[in-house]
Amino acid sequence: xxxxxxxxxxxxxxxxxxxxxxxxxxxxxxxxxxxxxxxxxxxxxxxxxxxxxxxxxxxxxxxxxxxxxxxxxxxxxxxxxx
Length: 82
Known about the structure:
Elements: H1 4-13, E1 16-21, H2 30-45, E2 57-62
Parallel strand pairs: 1-2
């Protein structure tokens, strides 16, 4: 995809990390996949011994071709807070 590497570099500059996927079938594992990709983004940000406070904001975005929660909505927004 043209411009993707530049966009990813810009995301690193503004201190945000994104994972964007477009699943086309509901395999039932989206919550676990989301958790996995969140951990991958976190691991890419820190070196051994680095403080957890240095973790940047991360966003996991799934653009689904199906209604994951079967509630008739086109958009679902979630925010985890620690």
